Amino acid sequence: MLIGSAQVFAQNGLTYLNYNILEGLKSDSSLKADFVTWVKEIDPDIIALQETNKFTQRSLEVFASSYGHTYAVLAKESGYPVAITSKYPIVNVQKVLDNMWHGYLYANVLDYHLFVLHLSPFLQEKRNYEIAQILAHIRLLPKNAKIIVSGDFNAVSELDKHTHTATLIELMKESEATHAHIRSLKNGQIDYDVIRKVMDAGFVDVFYQRHKKFKSSLPTARYRTEKSFDRRIDFIFVSKNLSKKVVDADIIKDQYTDYLSDHYPVIMRLNQ
After folding, report:
1. Which among 68, 71, 39 is positioned nearest to 57, based on CA atoms?
2. How many other C-beta atoms can be found within 10 angstroms of the C-beta atom of residue 258?
3. How far is CA 49 from CA 17, 157, 253, in A?
4. How do beta strands 266-270 and 246-251 pair?
5. What is the full DSSP assignment across 105-150?
6. Which tens digits make up the pLDDT trace of 237-271?
7. How many CB atoms lie within 10 A of CB 50?
8. List of domains in the chain
9. What end-to-end distance do the CA atoms of the chain give, in Å?
10. Fewest beta carbons within 10 Å, which of 4, 44, 129, 196?
């Protein structure tokens, strides 16, 4: 069933939301209030966040409590942090910042092993380095571990290759020609290695598992320009032992998510 409304997820089971909230919702009080209203409608159990800019650990805790999450963890208090908020205790937290562009969080919530990441936005080589480091961490876990890996990968999937047109590649080349810090192409072509490595490690793309078709997570309606191109770079992956418990998943596009951020959120519901 294609999810047209967030309320579909307000049922029994575990609801997991991943959202890049664009520089901490721009530190805009009205955007934060709308976010809280929207989250209360969805009522997720766990939220994985990227770009929690200008939050402190304390202010994130206060913010999370306003939408019913008693627990919150922030990776760092500078730059572009990742974060987790939850209705349930967040334990065994590891904040991995060394050799990472934005860093990632590892934690346990209930009996789930969570990895929340935000990979390098500009360099495909760095993204590949970072995902290799995260997958090496994952290999240390027990073989039967229930693992969720989510975030802004800043990378596209080969499953969506049919949407990656010659025009898209030309726009990316143009971007690289005018911005020396951007190197997202590999030998002049789109790099699929990051997502391929995750899937080769046995993880399942929950959105694609449920829908088998393309839906963009970037840009949103508010941030679309003449040179925008639709991409799916925000993902929730689960270990194979969890994939059979995925009841539904979607990229939510509604009257709130059209303007809250430049990314659309990804959501998943699991039967426990």
Report:
1. 71
2. 14
3. 8, 21, 17
4. antiparallel
5. EEEEETTEEEEEEE--SSBHHHHHHHHHHHHHHHTTS-TT-EEEEE
6. 999 999 999 999 999 999 999 999 999 999 999 99
7. 28
8. 6-158+192-270 (3.60.10.10)
9. 19
10. 4
